[in-house]
UniProtKB/TrEMBL annotation:
This is ABC transporter-like protein. It comes from the Bacteria. The keyword Transmembrane applies. It comes from Paenibacillus larvae subsp. pulvifaciens. One of its GO terms (cellular component) is membrane. Keywords: Membrane, Transmembrane, Transmembrane helix. The chain crosses the membrane at residues 21-49, 55-76, 88-107, 119-149, 170-191, 197-216, 236-254, 300-328, 360-383. InterPro entries: EcsB_ABC. Pfam families: EcsB.
Length: 384
């Protein structure tokens, strides 16, 4: 084998590696529940009920630019997954990782700020027309939302990062105290300006502050966050950083000997105990114990609500069907990774019971999402 043949062989391996990594990162469900809302928001700009109003013309160009930036950030985070994909496939391909490191770092830092601003831009017509607020209050509301986002990031730092040094803990607590005081003063000002919307946002922010600080106390006593720390340190966690948390290869999460906090006092889901019911119960509990699974499920549902509240009436009840189809396929993929474990290879179950358990577990999986989506569809039909 001469040098040219070796070079072509390595080049072929390199291209196959890039294609395999890209297909994993660019999951079809991620593409759909990111690209479809953007396409709907841009397509129905002029035929929606407020498309003919003059105030909408002011923000129309912002929405078009925002849609491109939204796709830009999503595309960049695929490279962030490619950067870490050597942990899954090949450990020797350092050239690809080095060349993409700078780009992926830039995209990952840009994602959070752009994501928050774009969601605000998409909802800007509703803020201006339905809530009757002026442009000054709009920008104050944007700053409040950004502050909420960064405060959440700060509390996540406290929850998930182990700070061993006392000065670091003291500095973080000082920052929390200052931000609490600032939010309290500013919240009173905003409530006095416009009581309805600002009271809602301020109470939401206050609930977030109290809830996250309670979670910090639970972290010291419970076992749930120990499992989260294990997930954060796992080699597959980097792949879940794809925008909106793309589905990743199944990884068993629970490693502590104690009963997880989320099911510490749980009862049986079915009164009749048979093989299929036990299989469904184990699948639901194992899925809910995984913090990243819950985050991924909630993000699919919540992000699908945004365009559903804005699109015309005739599509309000068709769009949730598409989201439920995505969740159906996602549940089947999670079920496949669940039943292919070593336990079911050693102790196989009859095919009829497996099919019955898969159908029932998938229905239980999409039932909460269906209730939320169609409730929002009905409410938005009458409110907007």
């Amino acid at each position: 084998m001469n040098s040219i043949t070796i070079y072509r062989y390595r080049l072929k391996q390199y291209r196959q590696f890039k294609r395999k990594v890209w297909l994993l990162a660019n999951d079809w469900s991620v593409s759909l529940y990111i690209l479809l809302p953007i396409a709907l928001l841009l397509l129905f700009n002029w035929i929606s009920w407020w498309g003919s109003k003059q105030i909408f013309l002011v923000v129309h160009q912002l929405r078009v630019i925002g849609g491109w930036l939204f796709l830009y950030c999503w595309f960049g985070n695929l490279f962030m997954a490619v950067e870490e994909a050597d942990k899954v496939f090949l450990l020797g391909m350092r050239t690809l990782i080095t060349s993409l490191r700078t780009i992926s770092l830039y995209y990952s830092l840009q994602k959070y700020a752009t994501h928050t601003v774009l969601l605000f831009v998409y909802l800007l017509p509703l803020f201006i027309q339905c809530l009757l607020i002026n442009i000054t209050q709009v920008f104050e509301l944007l700053v409040l939302v950004l502050l909420w986002k960064y405060y959440h990031a700060l509390m996540r730092y406290i929850l998930y990062i182990k700070m061993e040094h006392l000065p670091a803990k003291a500095a973080v607590y000082v920052v929390i105290f200052v931000m609490d005081f600032f939010l309290y003063i500013w919240g009173i000002k905003l409530i006095s300006m416009h009581a309805d919307i600002y009271l809602f946002f301020y109470l939401t922010l206050l609930a977030l502050v109290v809830g996250l600080q309670c979670l910090y106390i639970l972290r010291l006593k419970g076992t749930f966050f120990k499992d989260v720390d294990y997930q954060l340190n796992h080699k597959y966690f980097s792949l879940s950083l794809v925008f909106l948390f793309a589905p990743v290869p199944h990884v068993p999460l629970i490693r502590s000997q104690k009963t997880p906090w989320i099911f510490k006092r749980s009862t049986r889901l079915f009164s009749v105990r048979n093989a299929s019911h036990v299989l469904i119960e184990c699948f639901i509990k194992s899925y809910c114990r995984n913090f990243m699974n819950l985050s991924r499920y909630l993000q699919i549902v919540v992000y699908s609500l945004i365009p559903n509240a804005i699109v015309p009436v005739w599509i309000k009840f068709l769009y949730p069907l598409f989201i439920l189809f995505i969740l159906w396929e996602y549940a089947k993929s999670e079920w496949s990774s669940y039943i292919y474990s070593s336990f079911f290879k050693i102790h196989p179950l009859p095919k009829e019971q497996m099919k019955k358990a898969r159908k029932l577990s998938t229905l239980l999986f999409i039932l909460p999402a269906g209730i939320i989506l169609y409730t929002v569809s009905v409410l938005s039909t009458f409110l907007f």
